[in-house]
Predict the structure.
Amino acid sequence: MYAAVSGLRSHQTMMDVVGNNIANVNTHGYKRNSTIFEDVLSQTVAGAGTPTDNLGGTNPAQVGLGVTVAGTAQNFSQGFLQITNRDLDLAIQGDGFFVLDAAGERMFTRAGTFFLDAENRMVSSEGGLVQGWMADPVTGAINSTFQTDDLSIPIGDQTAPVITTEVKFGGNLPSEDPVGSTVETGLEIFDDQGNSVPLAITFTKTAVHEWTATAGYGEPLTPIVMTDNVLTFTDGEVTGPIDFDINIAAGQIPDTGDIALIIGGDTERRMTQFGDDASVTAFTQDGSAAGVLTSIRIGTDGVVAGTFSNGRTKPVAQLALASFANPGGLERVTGSSWIPSVNSGLAQIGDTDTGGRGIIAAGALEMSNVDLASEFTTLIQSQRGFQANSRVVTSSDELLQEIVNLKR
């Protein structure tokens, strides 16, 4: 009877575990549990016999005393990803965990539903502070070997202006144009205060395979003295100046330094002289006005890239991920958050896509890995196991009743 009672208790625990799995079927980042049974210490009725020359050995006779729950096992298999298209919804594809600081206690989660609080800190839905590394505000460099810190996304923060030092040109100068023809193009450059300065470049054909560049800035145009400004072409490809660099010396345009006008030398945007229309243009320049951080995007490497109102993008932070030698040893504190235990091993915190941590998918959330079909099958097994043990109790009661009725 007591063996059957132990069966009832164990199968009730199994029902509790299955019920909790089913209850969390839609909990983001939840990992299912399973129940592990083991036989209780058996009672030895007769010991084993040693074999002799004339008689074989005998096996021990034992009667089991019931069943107990040896423990529960967490299944950390990957859950399906649900697309949300929300920038701060993040999912991990791999074995990593997001790192949180909850009132000074370090926690680890697979649920990547994050928000920005009133202080622009990235937080979980329970208020845990997401951990990572902040980028250098000037260079955007990130050092993931430093200790992790709270991630703060400075929406509305300004970035300093960048002075123009290099302009790249590409396109075509018409080979059939007569000597003396001109091709004009213009662009905006930026001084050290981020002010926009109009810059006009004129290419004048001075020989069959030669063009000379001149420039001016502002309105009206103020001429600029340039060096290495004669372009030569061979078989339609620019071959001079040798370094493909027309120089504008510092001081010619107020509040600017040396400016290099790169002519061709680029496999994607070449400078040519073919029998085609003029198409010379400046396709990139490295200066910008001051900007305000307006939005962010998070890459698979966990780098939070900020987009500024001046069109620039720059890393502002990077999320940290953690891995464990034995994830099954983690102690669950909420449906999708865990803390380390003595058997999980220490948290190995580092970059994505290293140490088995996986990569990050932005705009998506990891669903629970609970399989309802499997859970309902387990539910039937636990129900039938409970029912069978209850029948053993009933049968034991009937045997006792027969013993009581022996004397009438």
